[in-house]
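#struct-help
A.M.: can someone run this one for me? Single chain, 226 residues.
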Amino acid sequence: MKFLPHGAITALAIAFFTASVLSWNDANSQTKPETSAEVPSETTISDGLNKPRRHFRVDRAAALDDDAARDIYNRLQGGMAKGYALSETPAAKNYQSWKRYNSAPYGSSTHGNRFVNNYANAKAAAYGKYEAAGKLPPGAVIAKDSFMVADDGAAAPGPLFIMEKMPEGFSYVSGDWRYTMIMPDGSVFGATRGANTNRVEFCIGCHLAQEKVDHLYFLPEKWRVR
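D.P.: on it. Structure tokens below:
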């Protein structure tokens, strides 16, 4: 397994995330950008960096068993937390102290073939009831951190995805959820009704399909923690 020091790997992850998106968004570009052997590359078929239609996908994503996924996450998670915390977003600074609802990092095709973990704060405790959770209250926060692993063993942190239930009236179409994506270096890629809000509009559209269960998706049964 290939790892770099946290500062180097977050910088490279950001650089290749942005480079891949911009390259695929360039109408005159005929080839994919070169990528480091140390960092998994990402591609998109969306409308580009400023209004993606989905999460950017990891190229050549690896398949891992639970033990391997845990091992990689254990090595990366301290640095991931430090990087996300640079955003000064409260959830990014605190989420790893919350309850984690998955037994091991699991692969998520809807999050671009990354491995993810589901954390929720105390106000979101009902999340642990999964489909029976009901409507979560204002102040409930669900955080999903992520990391990328390529089939050659290269691993790198991915974005932190946050859902925060806002006061009633915040946004009818989002069910009053605010979506925020934070990059491994702490930069905010986008936030609902905040900086670069157009970059996270696709989150609202995707979760709208789950309107009957408070716009929530739930992790696969295999990895659920009760």
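A.M.: thanks! Residues 14 and 79 are 14 Å apart (CA to CA).
D.P.: also worth noting: Strands lie at 42-43, 57-58, 99-100, 106-108, 114-120, 141-149, 155-157, 160-165, 177-182, 188-191.
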